[in-house]
Structure formats: C-alpha cells, structure tokens
Amino acid sequence: MSRATQQHSATLCALLFLIVARSATADSFALLHTFAEPGNINPNELLVDGSTLYGTTGQGGTYNEGTLYSMNLDGSHFQVLHNFQSLTPGGEWPFSPLVQAGQTLYGTSYAPAAYSINKDGTNAQNLPVQLPDVDGLSLIGSKLYGGGSMGDLGGGDYSAIFSMNLDGSDLQNLHIFTGFNGDGYQPSGIFTQVGSTLYGVTRGALGFGGTASNLFSMNLDGSNFQTLHTFNGTGGSLFDEIPDPHLTVIGSSLYGVTTLTSNSEMFAIDLNGANFRVLHTFASGPPSVLSDGGPLAAGLTLVGSTFYGVQSTGGSNGLGALFSIQPDGSNYQVLHSFTGTGGVYPSTQLTVVGSTLYGATENSTGDPNYGGSGPSTLFAYTIPEPSTAMLLFLGCLGLPIAVLMRRRRAV
Q: Which pTM was predicted?
C-alpha cells in the first residue's frame, strides 16, 4: 500500500470516527404517554399483544383505585378500558403484571386477590383466591400459578403457592410456607419454568425475627421443593437483599437481581442451586453522585445476548437510568438518563417488542434530593443497531465486515 493510500485511509477512518461518535450521542428515547392524574399512580409492567400494549395502574381512574388501559406501540389511541373499584368484580388497586390467555387478561389486586377480564375491559370477574395478598400470577400450560400471603395459620402468618384452571376451578395449594422451617415467606407468583420445574423467589417476612428471602425450585405439582439460595443481606439487614422474581435462563444457569435495596446485585446460579455468584454490584450513595445508577427498580430483560434494566435513581441527573449490561456482569452502560422531559424514577420491568423496550416512570418531574412530582408516564427506548458508518469504522480497525454484517442481521 502506497503512502498516499495509507494517508487517505487514515483520513477516511478519522471521518468515520467523527460520524460514529456523533451518532452514538443520539438518544433513542421517546415519551409515549403522560397520565392525566397529577401524581404517581403506580403503573405496572406492560403486556404486549400484537401491536397493542396493555397495562394497569395501582391508583388513578374514576375511583382512584386503579385502571386497565391499552395503547398502540407508538403511544397513540390510549384508552382506559376498566376502572377498578372496591367491592366490585376485579377489586381495587391492581399491583402485578398482567398475563394473557386468548382474549382474556388475568391479574391480581388487593380485594379480591385475583381477577380475569376481557381485553376490551368487559366481563371483569373475581377468581376464587379470596386472599389478602397475592403477588402476581403466571400462565403455565393451561393453568394459572400464583403465590402470596395466605393469612393466619396457628397464630402466625403463612404463605402458599397455588394453581388453578383459567376459570378458577381446581384451586390447589401446592406448597405452604410457614417461615419457621427456612423455606421463606411471601412467595412471588411470577415463576420461571424449565421443563417440569418452576423457579421462584420469596420476599422475606415481616415476622419470625426477619425471615430472609430465598430462591427456590419445585415441580409443577408442588413436589420436590428445594431452597437453592438464601439471601442473608449484604448491608447488615435481611431486607438489603430482596430478589426480583423475573429470572432468566441462559444455558444451565439462572440470572437475576436484587432490587430496591441499598446495594442491588446482579447474580447467577446453576439450575441445581450450585455455584451462586455475584456478577455486578450497583453502587449505593446519594442519587446525584452514583456512577452506575444506584438501586435497581425491577428485573432484567434479555434482548439478544445483552440484558437491559432500569434504576430508580442515578444517571447523570440522579432521576433514574436505563442501562445495558452483559450476562457476565461486564460492560455496564447507561443508555438513557431520565431528565424530567420524559419522566423520572423508572419503576417497571422493561417489555421488549423487536428492538424496542417499553416501560413506565413514577413521576414526570423530580429532584434527586426531594423526590418526584407530576404525573406518571410511559416511554419507549429503541436499541440502536450498528450503523453502516460504524461497520465501516470497525472495518478500518481491521475487523472483517462480512462477520460484522452477519452479526448485525442476527440482532
């Protein structure tokens, strides 16, 4: 290669670098909807069905006891489908993600503990789990599985995992938690299925001298219950380690996080309970000075070979962050710092549609030292694909373009 050709190539690479650097600063964030209510109405994780998103809020609506709503993926055609109300079918204060079977949605609320409702908001019905606190439902096969508080058993609270048919029939308690035998307390009803095995978490107890949270497995019929790991608290308190129920299987390992704690952690554990390891610790400290976003607000969402999540504080403004991280805990990157323009304090698990992530924030404006104000919001973040300029720039570095193009098509 001649000297002139080398100089020309160097100049081209430098120009491509500038183009890539400028495009890398572009934020693929979009505000989709701002709720009408003036404050936080506790929006829950979104459910996607085709080109429509469905969600619930724990407050707001006609009776300020929660709503079911839908909207298009671009935020258009937002409509409230159902207003929750105490002492009516569906109950009040829905607080868990929706699950779907055909044209019917299922969820949990304060009273009753579980309900079904048509996708258009009609025909709300109570399911026969008349319990004070059910923490989510999972659709596994043709049955609903759930978990939560079951009230009083011989002078102390206890909890259970249950299953039932979609119409509420054949309700069965599959495992009873007493808290006294080390199996935990307050199981989430959000499970991860691997073959005939369910994996889940307990959230600790307010009684029993402070029961630690656990990660467990059991068969679909409730047999072979095993505690795989006990979270003993990294900051001197059992409530410093509360696992999020959204677990992801990669190979022979489960991946998850602890959330809403002073030192949130990303962890992995083998499916048989061996080899628990902490992959990344998210720093604690004043929200405005956190370098990696602070406590996690929800679990991680896997897209391709990368995890994405949200943190309730941190980012460059101390008002929350959307980030990516690799499964081994490396390459943590803040992709979007919340500013108040598109909401503050993100609070839900991210829902993925193609290469776009959807989520919710608690408020629309805020101060990292004094809390948030203003309505809750819904947002979207599109994961950028490598641009042609990026691919050419990497080619300048000697990376084979054909391989990079194959990787691009695989995203």
A: 0.85
